[in-house]
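Project standup — Tuesday

K.O.: blocked on the structure for the chain from last sprint. Re-posting the sequence here as requested.
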Amino acid sequence: MDNIQLLEKLQSDKERLFSEIAKVIIGQKNIIEYLFMSLLCKGHILLEGVPGLAKTLLIKTLANAMDLKFNRIQFTPDLMPSDITGTEIIEEEQDTGKRSFQFFKGPIFANIILADEINRTPPKTQAALLEAMQEHKVTAGGISYTLKEPFFVLATQNPIEQEGTYPLPEAQLDRFMFNIIITYPSRDEEVDIVKSTTSTDIAQINPVLTGEDLFAYQKLVRDVPVAENVIQYAVDFVNSTRDTNNENSSSGSKNWLEWGAGPRASMYLILAAKAKALLDGRTTPDISDVQHMLHPVLRHRIIPSFNAEADGINRDNILDNILEKSS
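H.V.: unblocked you, prediction finished:
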């Protein structure tokens, strides 16, 4: 199958996948598209939203619509790294009485991991998960165990409850491809949500994508050509957040940014733009695709200054200001 045929199949599978998810999830079309794009780009996602917005249900439904192994880990203050990665247990052979250590795999050995309320567990447990995200392997007793591909971590956190939480440091946030903010549904969507969740009807989700399909689409994303000016635009935009003395930096970013995004942001911007173009049925991205992906890729990679916080300027406001100045 050539890339053109694969692109046509991707369009078909995307519609089928979104239709299956829509059986359970009402609205949130943009969020679902971001989730699918992260899978195409081999990226991880951090979902933020107040309680009751179906963050967990959305991820579970996505996993059910794909023929992949899914595990959910509920993060709590007493969760230990071994509770995620697995642990070694002494076993005794019945015949010889010989004892040896056996490694029992933890819930991280799956294709799609839901890390629920990741900011509720201490840093050492967060680090165990984030190391696996980066290396795609787990080490126990001096032996490395490779995680089965594809491997994705979709983490959630509640932005309004700060007591008893452990915010992720910036270096660990950078390992997530997207930071997605889930907002309240519209009135009509909420009416439909109430109707669907207070009846006896239970939607049956059927898998529509396999791991082999996903591998093919991931390769397709990497094969997409990108014009030089599109790459330069992405790099220049990221660079404008980084250096307050740079001539490309806007006056707003100079006053509002304490720290900018690193090179990984430029890489993810281009990958996300490629995936966006493919999902729209186009064979190459343009600058508008990069602009469309700026907020989810960059909002967790920039640090507002004290002046910005004092003025009530959030990260999305800063990105909007830079985008307006650069247009």
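K.O.: great, moving the ticket to review. The domain at 44-187 is CATH 3.40.50.300 (Rossmann fold). DSSP finds 15 helices and 13 strands in the chain.
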